[in-house]
Structure to design on (1010 residues):
């Protein structure tokens, strides 16, 4: 996730120094176009409206078949996408034809099929080996690409920029700054990777095998996507722990710390199993395996090569006995965890009840606290993210919280409430926006009148609000605070 | 956020010797400090050498520092001052204005919660012919007061005049968590003034103790009701402390008309709504979340949570807070639309975590196989510096603030933290849970550092398995290996003692030594 922040820094620096380094490219302008994106993000503190539009530019490469390859990050939250050929004056409107935020890849399609005539598909290469020399191309100006020679330093598994999926990434050492905007990387005239971000001297890039994995899939309904193993691992280096788990006769094998409920192996593995092999490949005490080209790589990369629907065999050690287990994998979904990982381009679910704004807790909300958000965002919400955001067997599970209160006579006395996680409403447990709506539809009755009783977690207490005059209050609040979106306000179902 | 800023900005006024404050003019001719000359003999400069515990290396004590404050004679050979003036003291002397020879003194009683301490001297002849100072009441708003003391910047007694600007129930920073009644005055209270009397005419109306760094000329004094409560508390030879209520209330909730109607509040009745009653609270089982507190000891509580107390509007908890152990407090409450009376016996709360600064000789700790386990406290969090509220580990900050509010983190005892690893072969792989919170040893929960130590040392199995909160990676140690290495590790790192389980009663201040 730190990468996402690196990105924003890069944007500020990048515009001024385009083309300040590197030799002129030769002819690759016929494969690559510039991408201009108007980005519009939801205002997390007033989720019925949007922040003002920001312009960002990046690159995309023509693929066989007429679609252009870009990163999902470059086009996330796009309200407009335009493509421009090097040397051309016109910008051509385009659409995002396909996007997989989990692996940070997107495919773009010009609206006019003839708009990019003369742009030819780039030949696709293979995965690199460590120390391979490559060329990174970035826009020098509106006419030409600049070529920057570089070298693959290392291959690692990281959280993808746009999701919490564990994805293999190249680390390519560079001298330049301002990279990471979908710049194509070539070797021997073939496309071998696409940059996703920069972290000091290193550019992160997606290997070609990940791109091919997506291109070989069914783009649209039936997309199988990238699966995950659904367990968390801890190193098994301590001799005491190895003896305790009866793994001391092996020098390899990593400890399974937790098995995600609802994951592929939820009923087959348990905590303190020792994972010895994944798909026939032996894994180390830290969970790594030996990749023929890349050296030691985390076993999660094995999952990057699989598809949702594939089966996976594991060999484990349980209580001293070696056991084989097999399960069918599913496409990984970051948003299966209760704290929403991303919601690019989607409206922010919210509900206003008597001026109280309820939302789903999301990482985007917490990121409002700036670069240090993991330290300075509200303590109880950070705790919720760090310690309660466990993948759930119920994929729709969310944390609903009261963001703040739009002050009105109806909510007098509650105006200072903010950022409280909701526990129950009208006696019903609330763990989704749907739950909240349903619970609010069943008022508690006191003295013959309907009331909402909203209970908060920890020391938040409870709020009591009457339903009488609620519609009038909502009309008033909508007018005062310019909330005009339909569905923002709670309405009693008829 | 603002809560933290405020806490940081309030600071205590014991002067470290290298701090220089402004000089004070002599205002003894003014109304508030009338006939001050007859009082000055009762005001003493207190000089202290102190020796604070280390919270990062809990077996150590930090290098001695010198500081000074003020105290005043209250009769029977007793001197009143602030707890923070004499906390962790290893040597104390008192000096009368105009005298040349300091007299050794010792702490008789110390109240860290209300920042008060009573000293006695070896040689009571210094009080011969000195008239003890007497106490008045809570000063009225806008009335003038004079602060007498020895602020840094000079040797002589100094008198500063100010006006009472506010009376409220607020944080006492020496304790770090407790709130009590305090009085704000609009005169600067400077380092060295701490513990000095604040007078109106000839009577003491408060004890100077803390100031607010973000506003000029804002000082705080401990008002007479809090001082008198302390003096009464120690009459039986023991300081029991202010009672903790363990009540969390929602101020203003009953300003809402539908809330008032829902709770069946009778016309003309105000009150506050209880959000949470701590399981350790004396009121647990008698009051419950959702109750509306209407009156406390026959004083009506407003929707703002305030009562009229000595002519001023202050938080209703002031009434509870000033009680002695063994007394009772009566609440009129509304529950399920019915009005009822609830009596709560005032007693010490059951063991629980509270976010306090610690003034024991050592924090509670235990070193096992070079792993340093210590009890969480605000003092431990402060080792992360002034920005501890951001820089300290999230889980520790969370436990400090919220642990009592959720069943899965509720701790009736110590919050045991793995605070340090003193590297050795025996703990070479114990790197995963630094700053983790211990939940279980060998599968069983542990409540205190003492119990934790006992479980590790006397456990049956060859392996000690320690689980940590929210961690999927337990610590596994070989008991025989630790036993073989422990003495060497402690010798190598100078860990003496290797454990400290005592509670607050084992205070760092010199109580018994000096009285021998």
């Amino acid at each position: 996730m730190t990468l996402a922040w690196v990105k924003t820094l890069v944007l500020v620096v990048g515009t001024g120094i385009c083309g300040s380094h590197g030799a002129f490219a030769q002819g690759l302008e016929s494969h690559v176009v510039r991408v201009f994106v108007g980005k519009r993000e939801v205002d997390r503190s007033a989720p019925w409206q949007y922040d003002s539009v920001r312009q960002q530019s990046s690159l995309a490469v023509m693929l066989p078949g007429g679609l252009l390859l870009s990163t999902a990050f470059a086009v996330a939250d796009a309200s407009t996408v335009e493509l421009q050929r090097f040397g051309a004056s016109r910008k051509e409107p385009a659409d995002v034809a396909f996007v997989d935020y989990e692996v940070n890849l997107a495919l773009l399609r010009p609206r006019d099929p003839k708009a990019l005539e003369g742009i030819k598909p780039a030949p696709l290469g293979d995965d690199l080996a460590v120390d391979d020399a490559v060329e990174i191309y970035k826009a020098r100006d509106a006419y030409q690409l600049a070529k920057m020679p570089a070298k693959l330093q290392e291959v690692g598994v990281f959280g993808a920029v746009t999701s919490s999926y564990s994805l293999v990434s190249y680390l390519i050492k560079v001298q330049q700054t301002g990279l990471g905007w979908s710049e194509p990387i070539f070797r021997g005239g073939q496309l071998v990777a696409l940059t996703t971000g920069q972290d000091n001297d290193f550019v992160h890039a997606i290997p070609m095998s990940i791109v091919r994995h997506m291109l070989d899939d069914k783009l649209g309904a039936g997309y199988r996507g990238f699966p995950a193993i659904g367990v968390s691992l801890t190193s098994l280096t301590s001799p005491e722990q190895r003896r305790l788990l009866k793994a001391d006769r092996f020098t390899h094998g990593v400890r399974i710390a937790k098995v995600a409920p609802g994951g592929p192996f939820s009923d087959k593995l348990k905590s303190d199993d020792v994972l010895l092999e994944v798909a026939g490949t032996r894994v180390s005490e830290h969970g790594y395996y030996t990749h023929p080209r890349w050296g030691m790589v985390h076993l999660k990369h094995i999952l990057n090569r699989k598809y949702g629907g594939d089966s996976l065999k594991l060999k484990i050690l349980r209580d001293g006995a070696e056991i084989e287990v097999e399960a069918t994998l599913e496409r990984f979904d970051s948003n299966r965890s209760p704290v929403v990982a991303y919601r690019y381009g989607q409206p922010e679910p919210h509900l206003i009840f008597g001026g109280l704004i309820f939302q789903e807790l999301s990482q985007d909300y917490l990121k409002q606290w700036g670069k240090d958000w993991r330290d300075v965002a509200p303590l109880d919400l950070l705790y919720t993210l760090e310690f309660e955001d466990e993948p759930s067997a119920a994929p729709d599970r969310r944390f609903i919280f009261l963001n703040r209160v739009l002050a009105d006579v109806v909510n007098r006395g509650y105006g200072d409430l903010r950022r409280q996680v909701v526990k129950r409403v009208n006696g019903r447990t609330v763990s989704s926006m749907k739950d909240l709506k349903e619970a609010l539809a069943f008022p508690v009755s006191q003295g013959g009148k309907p009331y909402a009783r909203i209970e908060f977690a920890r020391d938040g207490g409870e709020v009591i609000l009457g339903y009488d005059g609620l519609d009038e209050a909502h009309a008033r609040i909508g007018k005062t605070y310019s909330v005009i979106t339909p569905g923002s306000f709670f309405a009693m179902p008829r | 956020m603002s809560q933290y800023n405020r806490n940081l900005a309030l600071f205590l006024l014991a002067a470290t010797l290298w701090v220089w404050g402004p000089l004070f003019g002599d205002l003894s001719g003014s109304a508030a400090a009338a006939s001050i000359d007859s009082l000055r003999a009762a005001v003493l400069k207190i000089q202290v050498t102190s020796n604070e515990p280390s919270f990062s290396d809990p077996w150590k004590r930090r290098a001695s520092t010198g500081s000074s404050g003020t105290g005043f004679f209250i009769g029977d050979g007793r001197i009143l001052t602030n707890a923070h003036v004499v906390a962790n003291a290893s040597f104390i002397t008192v000096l009368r204005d105009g005298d040349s020879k300091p007299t050794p003194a010792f702490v008789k009683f110390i109240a860290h919660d209300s920042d008060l301490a009573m000293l006695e001297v070896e040689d009571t002849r210094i009080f011969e012919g000195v008239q003890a100072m007497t106490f008045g009441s809570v000063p009225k708003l806008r009335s003038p007061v004079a602060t007498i003391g020895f602020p840094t910047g000079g040797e002589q007694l100094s008198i500063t005049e100010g006006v009472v600007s506010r009376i409220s129930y607020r944080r006492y920073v020496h304790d770090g968590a407790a709130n009590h009644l305090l009085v704000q005055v609009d005169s600067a209270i400077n380092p060295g003034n701490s513990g000095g009397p604040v007078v109106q005419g000839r009577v003491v109306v408060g004890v100077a103790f803390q100031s607010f760094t973000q506003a000029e000329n804002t000082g705080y004094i401990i008002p007479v009701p809090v001082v008198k409560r302390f003096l009464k508390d120690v009459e039986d030879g023991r300081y029991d402390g202010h009672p903790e209520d363990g009540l969390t209330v929602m101020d203003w909730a009953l300003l809402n008309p539908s809330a008032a109607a829902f709770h069946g509040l009778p016309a003309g009745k105000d009150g506050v709504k209880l959000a949470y009653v701590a399981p350790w609270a004396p009121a647990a089982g008698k009051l419950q979340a959702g109750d509306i507190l209407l009156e406390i000891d026959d004083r009506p509580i407003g929707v703002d949570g305030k009562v009229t107390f000595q002519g001023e509007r202050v938080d209703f908890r002031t009434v509870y807070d000033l009680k002695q152990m063994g007394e009772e407090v009566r609440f009129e409450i509304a529950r399920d639309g019915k009005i009822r009376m609830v009596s709560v016996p005032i007693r010490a709360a059951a063991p629980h975590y509270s976010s306090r600064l610690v003034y024991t000789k050592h924090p509670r700790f235990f070193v096992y196989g070079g792993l340093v386990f210590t009890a969480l406290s605000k003092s431990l969090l402060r080792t992360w510096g002034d920005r501890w509220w951001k820089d300290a580990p999230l889980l520790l900050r969370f436990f400090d603030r919220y642990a009592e509010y959720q069943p899965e983190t509720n701790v009736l005892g110590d919050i045991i933290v793995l605070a340090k690893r003193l590297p050795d072969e025996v703990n070479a792989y114990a790197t995963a849970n630094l700053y983790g919170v211990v939940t279980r040893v060998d599968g069983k929960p542990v409540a205190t550092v003492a119990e934790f130590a006992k479980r590790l040392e006397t456990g049956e199995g060859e392996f000690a398995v320690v689980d940590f909160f929210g961690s999927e990676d337990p610590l596994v140690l070989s008991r025989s290996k630790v036993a073989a290495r422990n003495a060497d590790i402690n010798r190598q790192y100078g860990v003496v003692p290797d454990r400290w389980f005592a509670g607050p009663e084992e205070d760092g201040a010199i109580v018994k030594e000096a009285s021998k």
Observations:
- Chain B is about 15% helix and 35% strand.
- Chain B touches chain A through 47 residues (CB under 8 Å).
- The first strand of chain B starts at residue 10 and ends at 12.
- Residues 1-9, 16-29, 507-516 of chain B have pLDDT under 50 and may be disordered.
